[in-house]
Amino acid sequence: MTALQQKTTEVVDPVPGAGAPHLPDQPDLVQLLTPEGERVEHPDYRLDISDEELRGLYRDLALVRRWDAEATALQRQGELGIWASLLGQEAAQVGAGRALAEGDMAFPTYREHGVAWTRGVDPLHVMSLFRGVDQGGWDPVARSFNLYTVVIGAQTLHATGYAMGLQRDGAENAALAFLGDGATSQGEVNEAMIWASTFAAPVVFFCQNNQYAISAPIERQSRVPLFHRAAGFGFPGVRVDGNDVLAVLAVTRAALAAAREGSGPTFIEAFTYRMGAHTTSDDPTRYRLAGELEEWKLRDPIARLKAHLSRTGIAGPEFFTAVDAEGDELAARIRKGTVEMPDPAGTEMFDHVFAEQTPELAQQREEFVAYHASFEGEQ
Amino acid sequence: MTETLTIGKALNLGLRKAMEDDGKVVLMGEDIGKLGGVFRITDGLQKDFGEARVVDTPLAEAGILGTAVGLAMRGYRPVCEIQFDGFVFPAYNQIVTQVAKIHARSRGKLPMPIVIRIPFGGGIGAVEHHSESPEAYFAHTAGLKVVAVSTPADAYWGIQQAIAAPDPVVFLEPKRRYWEKGEVDTDGTPDPLFGSRVVRGGDDVTVLAYGPMVKTALQAADAAAEEGRSLEVVDLRTLSPLDLDPVYESVRRTGRCVVVHEAPVTLGLGAEIAARVTEHCFHSLEAPVLRVGGYDTPYPPSKMEEDYLPDLDRVLDAVDRSMGF
């Protein structure tokens, strides 16, 4: 039994007297790297991975965390309006992102900075969203990474529709829909899973169960483990250790491969923990105990890979020092790029509402320009 | 070729033509395939174009619109049928937060050429949620275009134009007029989709209507003519964007304006139109712009709907009040 498997989740009974629905132990949890950094095998999920790839994953995890820390600092210094930290979820995101093949399309929520990184999105194009310059500066088609979707769960339907398009095109690709534990309560997410199932659409639902939907614990969303929900929709559900980048990579790769081969959707529950606040506006000390965080720190996704790389000699101190230095450079570039980011021209709000501009909006734009021009020359 | 068609059949032929012209057009909706839709608007299309292009969907309106977004991202042109006006609300989130905003969100990188067909309005003796006029919700939403057709010719051409349009279009079909007949020249040149049209000339009062109320306004004009009053009737056709230049031109001549719709008057299309007509024709107006519409009640049980819906007499009453100023 691993530390994670030994954990029995405390359940608050929402209906007094109805009997507490204890979440079970986790014999089904897929794990390839223990919290102590020990490589273990799983009969269903083998992972052949080179030392180079292992070092690459570590670099991804470390750089994404460094970016996240810099972004949180920039928000505190007034340079961002808000930031949704991914702290603790790096392995879930990097593992899922690196499982994608060229031509696969990812549909993120607003926290998938780690996936953005794996898709080659410039961090500054994410920062511009949280600074209020735009709604995300990257090209979603070129990067095969949709723009962030803030309305909870709405993107799962987009991913399913996109997958139906892949089917019609005869494309050998899949869509990867990201969602959180809270989103599983949304009607649209349930609709997406029904559609995906009935049309056998090549889409994988990747749920990061980080245990909280802002303040609401998982017990407020579900009385069964989330991955059990998949059975009701008629496709496989898998619970993977979301803090184990290798297991996430293996499980997501397998699910995407099955989708591409026409076997339909899979629901992946990446069991993880939001180590930070929901966003920089949140205060988790009001709704969760400090001890819980301490417990999860022992399962840190980066520390365990570092331990593995060190113990096996796949990477040494020089490598880790170099990654740290690269992180500092990245953070400096992000900081400089963010604070120097120019504000957009006000006219931009009119320019992309439609592909075919309407006379009404063109007129409003003209009036806006004339109004501002009327102040020219004033102090 | 000129044919006499019902509005319903004209829509059916228009959809067929659009599907022949563009292989990326995909129809989606509840019961639209084997059944041909509850109003038979898609009759025969699944048989001829297959289940991948005429999709009988699960019973989930948010799902229809949400998957349409994904299909549009993949280069398809989804045409979504909402079975009845009152069932659009489960899809409202996808329409307002996603369909309407994705073009702007992506700064033009993700076009959303989605058509949302909605049979709208009352007068068919139906149960709750089958007789509503939700156009103002959509006209109020930036990023959507909203049109309402009133004739078989506009139905035939309009649905093709809406499908070819690069932006999302809410396409309102006057369900109680589905069986009304008219001439359609399928070789002709259609009027632009986003334009209003003067459908009857007159000098005394300008009456504005769209969708099912165009016929009512024309009937009112006939009745008024018998009393020696000359009404000019404008079919607005496009509700967002509004095309009011022909209306301003008309009101500057008549000095009087009445707006008619089935939707409740409070904050309905008539309110916006009244404000704009007042702003543009202030010095020509002989009377305030008057509105005739539904009351601010939920759409009533069908035995009361004749009391709720604007009819010829209520339009004439408003004309009288306008003339009386």
Overview of this protein structure:
The complex is a heterodimer of chains A (379) and B (325). Helices cover 44% and strands 8% of the residues of chain A. By secondary structure, chain A is an alpha/beta fold. Chain A has 2 domains: 22-344, Thiamin diphosphate (ThDP)-binding fold, Pyr/PP domains (Rossmann fold); 346-379. In chain A, α2 packs across α3, α2 (51-76) runs antiparallel to α11 and α2 (51-76) packs parallel to α12. Chain B has helices spanning 7-21, 45-49, 61-73, 92-99, 102-105, 135-139, 152-164, 213-226, 245-254, 269-281, 305-308, 312-324, and strands spanning 2-6, 25-29, 54-56, 77-81, 115-120, 145-148, 169-174, 181-185, 197-200, 205-209, 231-235, 238-240, 257-264, 290-294. Chain B is built from 12 helices and 14 strands. The mean pLDDT of chain B is 98. The radius of gyration of chain B is 19 Å and the shape is globular. The relative contact order of chain B is 0.12. The A-B interface holds A 105, 134-136, 139-141, 146-147, 149, 151, 154, 156-166, 168-169, 175, 187-188, 191-192, 194-195, 198, 351-356, 358-361 and B 26, 52, 57-58, 60, 62-63, 65-76, 78, 90, 93-94, 97-98, 102-111, 113, 142-143, 145, 165-167, 194, 240-243.
